[in-house]
Specification:
Strand content: 5-15%
Distance between the termini: 51 Å
Bound molecules: glutathione
Number of strands: 4
Oligomer: single chain
Largest sheet: 4 strands, mixed
Strand order of the largest sheet: 2-1-3-4
Radius of gyration: 19 Å
Shape: globular
Structural class: alpha+beta
């Protein structure tokens, strides 16, 4: 099998740590038990090669031999082709996993992302923009709640769709946005208790902590001066 390499930033500021989307790919690779390497690109200076792999200058992307894939959903679909642990073999379950994978990104994250940007910026008062996006997200959660109340995972057994849906909801939960939605909240708790998530989260936190240590380490020059 060709080598799998996940690329993420070398560093990010503390607030998004634990939520950078490379976690979705780390989590999927751990669930599938696929060996992989992690490479870093500069957060502060994004070069032409970075844009060749990810046209918006974002992360993550994955290379599988000569194939380079961006968009976390596309990456998980690709990995699903390599492992039944991510995409069920049964055609009906597989089709459900694919539809929920898109629903996570295109129906739920589409509403949760603007909502969380308002949350991050603290703009949650009386503004019409906030009210509109709060209502938009609630309209999605209101319909997801009865779905998740009836099933453990979205498409039979645990799949890539659950990685994406629970990661999308995890950011809402960070701001207590699942308080009125116990089935959504329990689903996130169930998903993030999986050993593969725990490892992916710890690995991402360690990756960025290592970058902090590298930048705060005394430089060779300053050690020379101190002698
Ligand atoms: N839709 C993309 C979103 C990627 C994304 O938003 N990446 C963030 C990190 S979580 C990023 O690179 N942010 C830096 C930027 O947008 O400049 C995906 O799911 O892969």
């Amino acid at each position: 099998m060709a080598e799998l390499t996940l690329t993420t930033f070398d560093w990010v500021p503390p607030p998004p740590r634990g939520y950078v989307r490379d976690i979705r790919v780390r989590w999927a690779l751990e669930e599938a038990g696929l060996p992989y390497r992690v490479k870093s690109v500069s957060f502060k200076a994004r070069n032409a090669e970075h844009f060749m792999h990810q046209p918006f200058g974002q992360v993550p992307w994955l290379t599988d031999g000569d194939i380079s894939i961006f968009e976390s959903g596309a990456i998980l679909l690709h990995l699903g082709g390599l492992s039944d642990a991510l995409m069920p073999a049964d055609p009906q379950d597989r089709s459900e996993a694919v539809e929920w994978l898109f629903a996570a990104l295109n129906s739920v994250e589409m509403a949760s992302l603007p909502w969380s940007l308002f949350m991050f910026s603290g703009d949650t008062g009386d503004s019409p923009g906030w009210k509109r996006f709060d209502a938009f997200l609630k309209a999605r959660l209101q319909h997801l709640e009865p779905v998740l109340a009836k099933r453990e995972w979205l498409a039979g057994s645990f799949s890539a769709a659950d990685i994406l849906m629970s990661d999308v909801l995890r950011l809402v939960d960070r701001f207590d946005g699942l308080a009125g939605y116990p089935a959504c909240h329990d689903y996130v708790a169930r998903a993030t208790a999986r050993p593969s998530f725990v490892k992916a989260y710890a690995d991402q936190m360690a990756h960025f902590a290592a970058a902090d240590r590298a930048t705060s380490a005394p430089k060779a020059d300053s050690r020379e001066i101190g002698r």
